[in-house]
Design a protein that fits this description.
heterodimer; A: mainly alpha; 16 helices; 69% helix; B: Four Helix Bundle (Hemerythrin (Met), subunit A)
Chain lengths: 410, 174
């Protein structure tokens, strides 16, 4: 029954045995099995996301009081596959004046940068691409390649809207990387390691319960890194037409589209790995396959929370977006990391029964103080009213009798 | 020839080709993109040497920060981003080529007596990089505390200077 207990390791060992049986040297066996594993992981991630797109559209539809896709197959479940086929057979249009190599390389780089993250995520106890000792740093570094892809798309398209969109996108991504990296240091300090596997193994208590503030900051910055609502200024239609991908059509646009969705899911996966215990759950050590199912369930929940935020919040203005980052999240995360470092170091000899509640209380105090400061700030700030309260109407059927009353109610 | 050697040769060729293209491409933007490719090649070389930390930091610092900074610099300072003037290659390029070849030969000859240049690489099994050792060395007064602190102060000074230059003073017209 070892196949059902841990299918991936079983198949890998079987494949390695077959290849070694053909007389290949061990190094070549390793290269071949890594190549196959990488291809399967990347393809699986993309196909899984195809189904997620359906789930997202369905959920967003419900948020907006409509059905969502409901024509093709039961509950419209094949809609994404039809969309995928359609985008495969669309025409590739290359506009005049583009810089061919950056223009064509940008979509590939965007998808690759997202899929590269999957190689360090432990999908179950035994199933991971590579156990890098600097896994988290790798995750941050690979994000930079995505930014490069966006710049190449914006510049290579030879279109001012694409370039403006790329500038705006990269400004947002670089800014939000600061609180993201700082809040990432909290799980690193709690686990004492940068390796993703080690962080998961250290989570006897999920880190979201030890440091809810770090989890919150990471969640917000991750939504901004993906560039979804309320941080979707990257594709503000009224200002930028469509953002950096305006000149792309057919499969190349599809790759940007897929990159965004895979990125959103990957981000939820990282959040689960760092703060929700990854694959951990009852029986996950004995049956690694079970751990994979736990991981996917937790990730899907995080992903759908992000979608509900996307469906319910309006878009930030660019100055508000920058204010949230530089005036709120960055100072808060810096204070949090100082507090957590002192608390973790001071309470190292104590048992977790004392240190964990103290950590939670410190986090809650920080959240409370932040909230109080924000409330006081917004009470003090006067918002100047634009326009008049008495709005002109086209056809005055009931003449307004008591203006004093209506003003009073407003 | 092992698999690692083949991968090394491909990566080395890409890195050197990218470096050559940096010097010869006509457009400023292309130069930067080739520079990114070269830096990426160096990162892969680090990874082949099992220096994971250096590899990741190479990508993070050079591509994630410096290359994007250079890209923005090029985009914001050139009047036309197409800057397709004459090739950046000077007509006396062969003088430079000879000098570089001589320098390379001098380096190769000078490292010949060094024993480590002849040791074949051994793959480290079950090698875990002690990142914590690096961290402790950076804050240990007996090790690298002072260089670390001095470089932090330098970076802080640079940041203050950058803010001073960029700040929009009240009443002044920038």
């Amino acid at each position: 029954m070892s196949f059902f207990r841990d299918p991936v390791v079983f198949l890998t060992q079987w494949l390695n045995g077959v290849l070694a049986g053909w007389g290949l040297p061990p190094a070549w066996v390793q290269v071949i099995s890594f190549t196959i594993g990488g291809a399967i992981l990347a393809t699986g991630a993309m196909l899984f996301v195809t189904i997620l797109i359906w789930g997202e559209r369905k959920l967003l539809g419900r948020v907006q009081d409509r059905y969502g896709p409901n024509r093709l197959g039961p509950w419209g479940i094949f809609q994404s596959f039809a969309d995928m086929l359609k985008i495969f057979i669309k025409e590739h249009i290359t506009p005049v004046g583009v810089d061919l190599i950056p223009y064509n390389l940008a979509p590939i780089l965007s998808v690759a940068a997202v899929l590269m993250v999957w190689s360090v995520i432990p999908l179950s106890m035994t199933m991971y691409g590579v156990d890098l000792s600097v896994g988290l740093l790798y995750f941050v570094a690979v994000g930079a390649l995505g930014e490069l892809g966006i710049i190449m798309a914006g510049w290579g398209s030879n279109n001012k809207y694409a370039l403006l969109g790329a500038f705006r996108a990269v400004a947002q991504l670089i800014s939000y990387e600061v609180p993201m990296v700082v809040s990432l240091l909290v799980p690193v300090m709690l686990a004492g390691s940068l390796s993703m596997n080690e962080i998961v193994k250290q989570q006897n208590i999920w880190f979201i319960f030890i440091s809810p503030l770090a989890a919150l900051i990471f969640f917000v910055t991750q939504i901004a890194e993906v560039g979804r609502a309320p941080f979707d200024l990257v594709e503000a239609e009224s200002e930028l037409v469509a953002g950096f991908n305006i000149e792309y059509s057919g499969l190349k646009f599809g790759m940007f589209f897929v990159a965004e969705f895979v990125h959103a899911f990957t981000v939820a996966l990282i959040f689960t790995t760092l703060f929700l215990g990854g694959w951990r759950g009852p029986g996950a050590e004995q049956y690694p396959l079970l751990g994979f199912i736990y991981l996917m369930l937790k990730t899907t929940i995080v992903y759908f929370i992000a979608i509900l935020m996307r469906g319910s919040l309006p878009r930030f203005r660019i100055d508000q977006m920058m204010d949230v980052n530089w005036k709120l999240l960055t100072p808060l995360s810096l204070i949090l990391i100082a507090v957590t470092a002192l608390a973790v170091k001071a309470m190292q000899p104590l048992s977790p029964w004392i240190s964990v509640p103290v950590n939670i209380v410190l986090n809650l105090i920080l959240i409370y103080l932040t909230q109080q400061l924000l409330v006081r700030y917004f009470k003090r700030r006067k918002i100047r009213e634009v326009g008049s309260r008495n709005r002109p109407v086209a056809r005055l059927e009931e003449p307004v009798t008591s203006t004093a009353e209506s003003e009073g109610s407003l | 020839m092992t698999a690692m050697q083949i991968i090394f040769l491909i990566v080395a060729a890409v890195t050197l080709g990218g470096a050559l293209m940096i010097a010869t491409s006509r457009r400023m933007m292309h130069t930067v993109l080739w520079l990114v490719l070269t830096l990426m090649g160096v990162a892969v070389l680090f990874a082949l040497l099992q220096a994971n930390f250096f590899s990741v930091v190479q990508v993070l610092v050079y591509i994630g920060a410096i290359a994007i900074l250079i890209l923005f610099g090029v985009m914001l300072t050139r009047r036309s981003m197409v800057d397709a003037g004459e090739s950046l290659v000077h007509k006396n390029w062969w003088v430079v080529a000879v000098v570089i070849a001589l320098l390379f030969a001098a380096i190769v000859i000078s490292i010949q007596p060094w024993g480590a240049a002849h040791t074949p690489l051994v793959e480290l099994m079950e090698f875990k990089e002690p990142i914590s050792d690096l961290g402790e060395a950076l804050v240990d007064p007996a090790a690298y505390l002072i260089p670390f602190e001095v470089s932090s102060v330098l970076l802080l000074a640079v940041m203050v200077a950058a803010i001073y230059i960029a700040v929009d003073r009240k009443g002044g017209k920038s």
